[in-house]
Each structure stands twice: as C-alpha cells, then as structure tokens.
C-alpha cells in the first residue's frame, strides 16, 4: 500500500512553460547584477561561486567569467547544484516583488491537499533547490501548498537519473520502497526510481501517450489517484 508520495515539479505539478518561459528568463536577466552586487559580502553567493569555479575550471577571481558560465548553464538547462542554489535566491526576489506566482496545476493542488488529508506523507524531489521548491509551492497560483509537504529533496542527494539518489531518499525517510510512489514526467527518472523498488507513475500532461509502456501513465493527478491510490 502507498504511504508516501514523492513528486517532481517541472512537467508534473507545474508546467514546463512556466519554468522555461518565466523562471529561467527571470534568473538570466537578473543574475549578473545580483552577483556583482553580492559577490564580495554575501557568504551564500561566494560559496556558490567557489563551486562554479571548481566545476567549470574558470578562474575564481574572474567574476565576469563565472557569470558567463552561469548564463550558459541556464541556456543549456544544466542541473548544477550551484546554479540551482543561485536561481532560488533570484526567484525569491521575483516572488517577493510580485513579478510572478508559482504555477501549479489546479488538479495537482487539489490532490496534494486530498492525499495529505488522507494521511499520506508528501515529499518533493526536484532539480530546483529546496528554497526554490518552497517558493513555488508557497507563492503558488493555488495558494500556499507548503503545509501539505513533509519534506523536500534537491540535487544535494544526487541527480534525478541516478538510482543512488532514490536509495538515499529511502534511507532518510526510513520506509520500504514498495510503499513509495514517485511521480515524474521524465522516463529516465522513473527508471532510476523503479530500479531501487519504488512504484512510479509517468505524468504526460500534453502530447501523445506512448503506445506501450510497462508503467502507469496519467494525464493529471486525478488519474494518478484513480490508477494507483484507490483501495
Ligand atoms: C523549483 S521550480 C524550478 C525547477 C527547476 O529549476 C528545474 O530545473 C526543473 O527541475 P525538475 O526536477 O522539477 O524537473
Ligand atoms: Mg520534471
């Protein structure tokens, strides 16, 4: 029986277009000014720049070079933890200034609430930083959804296509894999989760459904509930 649900964000609770057409461009537009302003005195920014230099090989003292690396990573949708941490800090400003609300599909909000009220434990696992996850659900178009979540995981546990990341999450939660359902729109992430025993459901919100697939597929969270959570 499913007792825990772990959900992805982009393409699962929230639209891909919101992430790619609103969040990423906002971070790209404000990144350089934010770093130039804070790179001397903000320890959180300094720490991420250390990591960007380490990963990219760019000289740590070349702040403009590091900004260029980060801008390129945004354009390539790289899931680098340092970039994701900086994006979270930038988006915090955006949400607070009212530049956007976090997009969450109404069906996702409805069933997150319903599953929480039924006693299921809900978690997020996204490449977005934990800060960014709390922001999208805290400032969501469907209201503050953070009370429904018991915890958040980001790439600090590892990449989403790595089986070891799901093993690490299971270790932290202390639950049997067969009691956990992972929701995502990316097949490689579902495969990694399945390889350590998690149940999965493939969210395909738009476009054609696959002809044959070994796993349950759902258009929205109502279908997830109907296919996997009805007893
Ligand atoms: C927390 S919203 C921004 C999501 C993000 O930065 C991203 O790269 C999408 O990752 P996901 O694992 O949710 O597909
Ligand atoms: Mg996704």
From TrEMBL:
<keyword id="KW-0486">Methionine biosynthesis</keyword>
<dbReference type="InterPro" id="IPR023943">
    <property type="entry name" value="Enolase-ppase_E1"/>
</dbReference>
<keyword id="KW-0479">Metal-binding</keyword>
<keyword id="KW-0460">Magnesium</keyword>
<protein>
    <recommendedName>
        <fullName>Enolase-phosphatase E1</fullName>
        <ecNumber>3.1.3.77</ecNumber>
    </recommendedName>
</protein>
<dbReference type="GO" id="GO:0019509">
    <property type="term" value="P:L-methionine salvage from methylthioadenosine"/>
</dbReference>
<comment type="pathway">
    <text>Amino-acid biosynthesis; L-methionine biosynthesis via salvage pathway; L-methionine from S-methyl-5-thio-alpha-D-ribose 1-phosphate: step 4/6.</text>
</comment>
<comment type="function">
    <text>Bifunctional enzyme that catalyzes the enolization of 2,3-diketo-5-methylthiopentyl-1-phosphate (DK-MTP-1-P) into the intermediate 2-hydroxy-3-keto-5-methylthiopentenyl-1-phosphate (HK-MTPenyl-1-P), which is then dephosphorylated to form the acireductone 1,2-dihydroxy-3-keto-5-methylthiopentene (DHK-MTPene).</text>
</comment>
<keyword id="KW-0378">Hydrolase</keyword>
<dbReference type="GO" id="GO:0043874">
    <property type="term" value="F:acireductone synthase activity"/>
</dbReference>
<comment type="similarity">
    <text>Belongs to the HAD-like hydrolase superfamily. MasA/MtnC family.</text>
</comment>
<dbReference type="GO" id="GO:0043716">
    <property type="term" value="F:2-hydroxy-3-keto-5-methylthiopentenyl-1-phosphate phosphatase activity"/>
</dbReference>
<dbReference type="InterPro" id="IPR036412">
    <property type="entry name" value="HAD-like_sf"/>
</dbReference>
<dbReference type="Pfam" id="PF00702">
    <property type="entry name" value="Hydrolase"/>
</dbReference>
<comment type="pathway">
    <text>Amino-acid biosynthesis; L-methionine biosynthesis via salvage pathway; L-methionine from S-methyl-5-thio-alpha-D-ribose 1-phosphate: step 3/6.</text>
</comment>
<keyword id="KW-0028">Amino-acid biosynthesis</keyword>
<comment type="subunit">
    <text>Monomer.</text>
</comment>
<dbReference type="GO" id="GO:0043715">
    <property type="term" value="F:2,3-diketo-5-methylthiopentyl-1-phosphate enolase activity"/>
</dbReference>
<dbReference type="InterPro" id="IPR006439">
    <property type="entry name" value="HAD-SF_hydro_IA"/>
</dbReference>
<dbReference type="InterPro" id="IPR023214">
    <property type="entry name" value="HAD_sf"/>
</dbReference>
<dbReference type="GO" id="GO:0000287">
    <property type="term" value="F:magnesium ion binding"/>
</dbReference>
